[in-house]
Amino acid sequence: MLSSPLIVLILFLTIGTSVCYEKSYANHQVWRLHITNNEQIAKISAFSHIAHLHDINFWSEHFRIDEPVDVRVPPAAVDSFAEFLTSDGVKIEYVVHMGDVGAIIENQKIVQNLTRLLSNTNDFAYDKYHTLEEIQAWIDQMVSTYSELATLFTVGKSYENRDIIGFKISSKKMATKLDGTKTAMKKAVWWDGGIHAREWISPATVIYIAYTFLSKYGQDPTITHLVDQFDFYILPVFNVDGYVYTWTKDRLWRKTRSKTSVPTCFGADPNRNWDYHWCENGASHDPCSDTFCGGKAFSEIEVSQVAKYIADQQGAIVHYINFHSYSQLWMSPWGWTAARPAQYKLQDDGSVVAINALAALYGTKYGHGSIAEIIYVSSGSSADWTYGTANVTFSYGVELRDTGEYGFLLPENQIIPTGQETLAGLIALVQYIEKHVYA
What we know:
Blueprint: H1 4-14, E1 29-34, H2 38-48, E2 57-58, E3 69-73, H3 78-85, E4 93-98, H4 101-118, H5 132-145, E5 150-157, E6 163-169, E7 175-176, E8 182-183, E9 187-192, H6 201-216, H7 221-229, E10 230-235, H8 240-248, H9 301-311, E11 317-325, E12 329-332, H10 344-362, E13 367-370, H11 371-374, H12 382-388, E14 394-400, H13 415-437
Parallel strand pairs: 9-10, 9-11, 11-14, 12-13
Antiparallel strand pairs: 1-3, 1-4, 2-3, 5-6, 6-10, 7-8, 12-14
Helix pairs in contact: 1-4, 6-13, 7-13, 10-13
């Protein structure tokens, strides 16, 4: 048994070889703004478009009366932002929600390093966050271990020449229609995580769910039935370059890592870059903004390649989810407009089925509705493209835990509960979808 001083010494000697960030968030705070009227909404909305000029980052992107707005504020902007919130005769009340973001990141980093140091097994830990290298090794392991069910697929290469890989789960059995007849036209499901790099709970949840489907096939009758009925395309990490960057340079990085027209600003928002009502509303043309839509639709190679891969399935995919954090929301199209699509009730009823099953496990409450109505207008999103162009009827964007207590820094002890409740929601949703696509 190692002594405590020795553990600490070894830990700090090994920090540089595992989780280590170049960008410091020491003494950065997260303020929670209290919005009570439309004048305040207008004021904060206008400021959000230039907030990045002050290194102020809105963790909440939807501004509604009586809903909290979380904003990261660096030490240099504390006084000026506080003054702004009381200016122009429109006062916005706030509380300091997180006193030191950097300390939270550093504490989590220490726990992660200590766990890795003291681990006595090479097994993949489903209650831990993992690097891209570890996740891709896990994919290889799943394909090898469950070779009768899982096959590797490669979407393509990222901007920085990393492989974008996932795997397909398929029992190779024919699907059964509701009338009992067999059909060779098996429908498919696509679930992806990590489109926004800093949202680590997203890949972790997709990984947990995919492993459960593989390991429980042949044991759990419900999962066995669904795997026999559908093919499942699993892409744990969409934005591979951005995800690596969050592990090595900047824990709170969101975008891709492509070069832009501004030499000091990198990447585009991969969930504003899809070629469906691209950059009309709820996105920015400013390369330095976190919601930069890119120089053109599908400018980001990761986005264009995922879209092509989905399109190449020639209509087999009937269900798509792009997992995010945070806010606990189950959302359907549209994002680009508050107008509802013709199949909105069919889609939203599926959301209700999912969140009811999810809540039954731990009581976690999710909201539901269209993207534009429940969170914000955002054009060029994945769910809008998969529904509007690829004709994937049951397209969703899901915001996982939590509602802001930890935000993008959700502790590892919430990975398994998040995975378990999300799995319950997904099983119920896919059962709902089955009744409609195999009628």
